[in-house]
Amino acid sequence: MRVVVCGCGVVGASIAFFLARRGVDVTVIERAGVACAASGKSGGFLALDWCDGTPLAALARRSFALHADLAEEIPGHASYRRMTTYGGLGGEDIHGNSDTCALEWTSPHIKVSSRLGSTQTTAQVHPGAFTHALMQVAQTYGAKLRLAQATGLVRGGCGSRIRGVAIGSEVVEGDAIVIAMGPWSILASQWLPLPAVFGLKGHSLVFETGTKISPEALFLEYREADGTLLSPEFFPRPDGTTYVCAISSETPLPVNPADVAPEPGAIERLRALSGHVSPVLRESRILASQACFRPVTRDGLPLIGRIPGVPGAYVATGHSVWGILNAPATAEAMAELIVDGASRTVDLSPFDPGRMRPLDRAQMFKAGQ
Ligand SMILES: Cc1cc2nc3c(=O)[nH]c(=O)nc-3n(C[C@H](O)[C@H](O)[C@H](O)COP(=O)(O)OP(=O)(O)OC[C@H]3O[C@@H](n4cnc5c(N)ncnc54)[C@H](O)[C@@H]3O)c2cc1C
Question: From the CA of 182, how far away is ligand 1's center (Å)?
Fold first, then answer.
């Protein structure tokens, strides 16, 4: 069996890994670079039970366990770490006191009010390193990576059977195809009956902090001087950097993933916020100032499964804020669905792409406005 996966973010790379490990002939087509989008620019925070009580619970729990297994299995994948996670409040009008515990690297304007997770329930990976490592191991199992833009679906001569994916005038042959292009999956609605997928932009900074910030994640409710409420997240990483993200915006998705750039002023705000939260961050060198789009659907749940009416066509996208967490279990279940005909490890029915109407051309035009 030959499978063509479109997109090499964390979801596409994970699917390539789980398929190639089972001996499937996989080709991944990636337009702008492995992990060039959200999968290389997100937090990489993982939680066992933060999706409990939602349709994502089983997917998240299975994925949390798979991340620990993959950290053992993948040679050189050193970015996985279990960590304690705290929550709190921040802002110029906040002043911690002796009743509120503080982290040693935070300023007096931060009040740490709760422990949100323990080393049993929260962890992290470096999302870009994880995605690259999965794709590299997939390649050792025989998977191929093509740096090119997937431009269409190609069907067989006499009917609807899939022949492969077009990259310009060339065809990458496959018996099955998987759309895993994150928010750019909406572009595949021109070739396949897919429900809408949108992109929601977020901004982040990566600081060089060495060992000055202890290995604990922090989630804040933060009030800026003008009263605006933000929800910044802070993730110190094993490589001596600290990742900080906040400030979402509903700006249009550029057609080329390489053209994603921060909004004017957003990086300056995030830098000011970071410096206010921690003197260590105020003094640390900034290694990356970036933006990326997370893929979202109308009902907030991912699309994982068969594309109705097109035998051999599958989609896996729309993971929103939990794409790094949920990629492994998504991919494991997708490999089961494609190879065995049904997913065994996780029930994919809540994520059935057929639950929502596909976009028609008029809606596609509107979504692109
Ligand atoms: C600021 C921020 C922080 C986040 N933090 C976390 C977190 O802590 N934990 C967590 O679990 N999740 C987090 N997320 C969510 C997570 O990053 C995403 O859900 C996940 O990265 C989506 O992965 P993906 O593979 O679906 O899409 P993407 O990473 O967007 O990858 C899609 C790929 O498809 C490629 N592509 C596009 N068009 C084509 C084409 N025509 N042909 C071929 N390839 C194409 C793109 O170049 C890209 O590489 C965060 C998101 C944001 C924005």
Answer: 5
Q: Which amino acid residue places its CA nearest to atom 6 of ligand 1?
A: 43
Are residues 193 and 151 part of one domain? yes
Q: Ligand 1 site: residues with CB under 6 angstroms?
A: 6-12, 29-32, 36-39, 42-45, 149-150, 180-184, 187, 202, 204, 245, 257, 292, 294-295, 317, 319-325
- Are 156 and 163 in contact, with CB atoms under 8 Å apart? yes
| Global confidence as pTM | 0.96
What is the rounded average pLDDT of the residues 42-46?
97
Residue ending a domain, choose from 295, 314, 329: 295
Whether residues 221 and 360 share a domain: the answer is: no
Q: Are residues 356 and 314 both part of a single domain?
A: yes
* Predicted confidence (pLDDT) at residue 102 exceeds the cutoff of 90: no
205 and 271 inside one domain: yes
Question: For the segment 182-202, what is each residue's pLDDT rounded down to a tens digit?
Answer: 999 999 999 999 999 999 999
Last residue of a domain, one of 273, 295, 317: 295
The answer to whether 69 touches 156, Cβ cutoff 8 Å, is no
Mean pLDDT across 104-114: 92
Residue 61: give the domain boundaries: 2-76+125-197+297-367
> For position 92, which CATH number holds?
3.30.9.10
* 72 and 157, same domain (yes or no): yes
Nearest ligand 1 atom to alpha carbon 35:
49
252 and 112 in one domain? Answer: yes
Q: Are the beta carbons of 116 and 221 closer than 8 angstroms?
A: no
Same domain, 351 and 314: yes
> Would you report the helix, strand and coil content of the chain in percent, each value rounded to 5?
30, 30, 40
Between the CA of 158 and the centroid of ligand 1 the distance, in Å, is: 36
Q: How far is CA 179 from the centre of its chain?
A: 15
Distance 280 CA to ligand 1 centre (A): 29
* Spatial CA neighbour of 308 closest among 243, 341, 355: 355
Number of domains present in the structure of the chain: 2
Question: In which band, very low, low, confident or very high, does the pLDDT at 86 lie, cut at 50, 70 and 90?
Answer: very high
Q: In the chain, what is the straight-line distance between the N-terminal and C-terminal CA atoms, in Å? A: 39
Residue 181 Cα: closest atom of ligand 1: 34
Q: Which one-letter amino acid corresponds to residue 209?
A: T
